[in-house]
Structures are given as structure tokens and as C-alpha cells.
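step=encode ok
step=design start
structure_in=
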């Protein structure tokens, strides 16, 4: 039976411009990138939805899309990936992240769409959608959707397991989420922890503080190549090392982790 996942959150348009940098501009101390290829892909919650759909889940994305060329491009990319849309209007322009790269190395990132976007509309008709899902993944990218009152009320009322991937500029998870997945830097910032006492101790302290504040079932703090630390009931965390360490661009690693966790909970797995 196909598992059903609802992904909720802010969607961005990611554009990778790859080329070759062989020379410096004669009119400025800057590299000149000779463009060779450009690839567009959904970013933010859209990336998490695409990753989950590629794993064979039936995915619906609750998001906000702007009525512009970027929004149309995102809708087309998501449809090609097999993601169903439950979208509301996003005021203003589509947020874009354009990465200029040479040999896989990012030389410069150009952000478009405004640093302080207008809040999107509040999605409607969510109760039945959430009730019919096996799991919900909230992928917050700090652009206002997760703070909408109607959306938060629907998330708080559902009995469906929720994984919440937070953002420092986003809303706090609703009470009772099954699992929250901040990375190490986010956990320390959100918990107001200054560090100290060793990496595992500091990570555990931050994770347990967030678990208390958010009234979450568990908080797992990802620590890059060092693995993850699961903070749940009791004073002793579960420290999970990585099976292997990959090199290269880490963009999307958090989305991959959160989507995999939501899929596992949809299968009935325990957070551990």
C-alpha cells in the first residue's frame, strides 16, 4: 500500500548555473564564469516533497506560490515529479536562490524575492487532507506560511504523526509533534544555548531544551558528518553516527533527512 505524506512549508526556486572560470574580469576583481548549463529545481519544502515522491510516497504539498514566471516554473517542476499541489497565493515574487558554480564549487549565491516577504494566505480545507495522510512533514523556510493561524490549528488538531523541520526565522512547532529535526547550529540558536561542556553535551542540552519548549515527543539534532543526537524522554540521548560521509555540496541534506524520517514514521517506526 502506498504511503501518503503531506509536506507543508515554503517553496523556493533553486537555479544552478554551472560553468568554467578561467579568467578574472578586467574591470573588477572578480572571476568571469562562462555559463555552460542551467538547472532549475524546487527548493525548500518543494525539494523535500520531490525527494519523498522519488522514494515512492504519494505526496501532497501545501505551500504558497506567486503568480509569476517563477511560480509557474515551480508548479510545472512539481507536477513533473509527481507531487500534488494544495497551493495558496503568495504575494510578491517567487523566492529564488541562484547558485553560480564551477567544478561543483559554489562561487556566488544570488537571492531574489525579498528578505522580508509579505505573509501568504492561510490554506483552507486541511482537516481531511491531514486525516488521510500517514505522516506530515512541516518544512519551514522562515517565509511565513507555518505561522498562519488556520494552518497551525489544523496541525494541532490532527492525530497524524508530524515531523517538523524548523527554521530560525520560522514559527515554533505546534505542541505534540512526533519529531523535530533542527541541525546543530539551529538547535543552539533556537534554544539560546551558548555551547560549552563538549559537543555531545551541548547538543543534548539544546535538544532537550527545545523538546521542553515545544512539547515535542522527541528532538533529533543533526550534526553533519558526526551523525545525529536524538533527545527523547529520559536524560540519556541516543547518539547515532553516520554510516558513511559524502563529500560535496550539502544543500538539501536537511530536507533529505527530514523526508526520510517522515517516511519511516509513516511506516509505523518509532523515532529511535
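sequence_out=
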Amino acid at each position: 500500500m502506498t504511503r501518503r505524506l503531506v509536506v507543508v512549508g515554503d517553496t523556493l526556486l533553486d537555479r544552478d548555473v554551472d560553468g568554467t572560470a578561467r579568467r578574472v574580469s578586467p574591470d573588477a576583481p572578480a572571476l568571469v564564469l562562462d555559463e555552460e548549463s542551467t538547472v532549475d529545481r524546487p527548493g525548500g519544502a518543494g525539494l523535500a516533497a520531490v525527494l519523498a515522491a522519488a522514494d515512492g510516497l504519494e505526496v501532497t504539498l501545501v505551500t504558497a506560490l506567486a503568480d509569476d514566471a517563477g511560480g509557474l516554473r515551480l508548479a510545472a517542476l512539481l507536477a513533473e515529479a509527481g507531487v500534488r499541489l494544495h497551493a495558496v497565493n503568495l504575494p510578491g515574487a517567487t523566492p529564488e536562490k541562484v547558485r553560480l558554480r564551477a567544478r561543483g564549487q559554489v562561487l556566488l549565491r544570488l537571492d531574489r524575492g525579498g528578505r522580508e516577504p509579505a505573509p501568504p494566505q492561510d490554506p483552507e480545507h486541511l482537516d481531511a487532507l491531514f486525516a488521510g495522510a500517514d505522516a506530515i512533514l512541516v518544512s519551514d523556510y522562515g517565509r511565513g506560511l507555518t505561522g498562519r493561524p488556520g494552518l497551525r490549528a489544523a496541525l494541532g488538531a490532527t492525530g497524524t504523526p508530524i515531523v517538523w523541520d524548523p527554521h530560525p526565522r520560522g514559527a515554533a512547532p505546534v505542541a505534540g509533534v512526533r519529531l523535530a529535526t533542527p541541525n546543530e547550529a539551529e538547535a543552539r540558536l533556537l534554544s539560546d544555548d551558548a555551547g560549552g561542556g563538549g559537543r555531545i553535551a551541548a547538543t543534548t542540552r539544546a535538544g532537550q531544551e527545545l523538546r521542553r519548549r515545544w512539547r515535542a515527543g522527541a528532538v533529533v539534532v543533526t550534526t553533519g558528518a558526526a551523525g545525529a543526537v536524538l533527545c527523547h524522554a529520559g536524560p540519556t540521548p541516543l547518539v547515532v553516527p553516520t554510516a558513511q560521509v559524502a563529500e560535496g555540496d550539502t544543500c538539501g541534506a536537511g530536507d533529505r533527512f527530514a523526508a526520510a524520517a517522515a517516511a519511516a514514521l509513516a511506516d509505523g517506526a518509532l523515532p529511535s
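step=design ok
step=annotate ok -> The chain has one domain: 4-23+32-266.
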